[in-house]
Amino acid sequence: MYDFIRSAVTVQVIAAAGGVVRPLNGCEVSQGEVLQAGVPATLTGRVQVVEYLRAFLSGRFGWETGNGLLIVSGAFGMFRKQVLLDIGGYADSLGEDMELTLRIHHRLADEKAPCRVITAVDALCWAQVPETLRDLKTQRVRWHRGLADALWRPRGMVLRPRYGTVGMAALPVFWAIELLGPVVELAGYGLLAAFLVTQGPSATALLVFAMAYLHGLTQSLTALVTEGRTYPSPEDPLLLAGACLLEPVLYRPLLALWRCEALLTMKRRPRWGTVTRSRLS
């Protein structure tokens, strides 16, 4: 199987590649072409810009080292045709893009094929994001259910050395932090609130809050400084910096709540849901 790969074992062939995705909301668009990048008019849209900048900088690029990238985004990805045909293409899953990427890793590791899954850093795609809380909730509940399904199917890869970085690092981290992390996060908010109610404000509570807040803020501002050059208007970085300041206390708690709801309702009949899109020229 993969003779075309084995014929050049000194070269690592790209099995799949994902591009960089940025929110389209707020951009100037004409005839399907982005003439000038801009930030969304709503705070909901801006915090998603920050989230996307951070996710692709620290998440996708970071996991690519060691061939541990678990997802080629469904919005913007390319696959080597023969690899895709050999594994049967997309499956019936809410997290079809991640599920497909994991099956690629599984098959390539079993075949010991010298292939990689990468992020093409110079390939940029613009996609509309939800700007109402209702639409955002629909999307994120679906995403988290899809994440749970995609992680459950290849559970036999977890902590198996034969699957390299994917099995020994990426999958355990995604199980512990991406899938179950919202439960811990929401519990932390509850414990902090209970502590403040029963014990009153204290230096300990303030320190815990400050550490968590500054950790998230540092990640977001680093991503903004590194990747925010996409936005040419002098006002845009200031608007996004404001979103960075508000995101840890307004946006992330909501995401944690919705993700926990997704886990609690996993047995319900899966549905894609609808998200309102704006008409573009």
From TrEMBL:
Domain Glycosyltransferase 2-like: 67-197
GO MF, one annotated term: glycosyltransferase activity
Assigned protein family: Belongs to the glycosyltransferase 2 family.
Name of the protein in question: Glycosyltransferase family 2 protein
Gene3D superfamilies, sorted: Spore Coat Polysaccharide Biosynthesis Protein SpsA, Chain A
Species name: Candidatus Allofournierella pullicola
Domain of life: Bacteria
Lineage: Bacteria, Bacillati, Bacillota, Clostridia, Eubacteriales
Residue stretches in coiled coil: none
UniProt entry keywords in alphabetical sequence: Glycosyltransferase, Membrane, Transferase, Transmembrane, Transmembrane helix
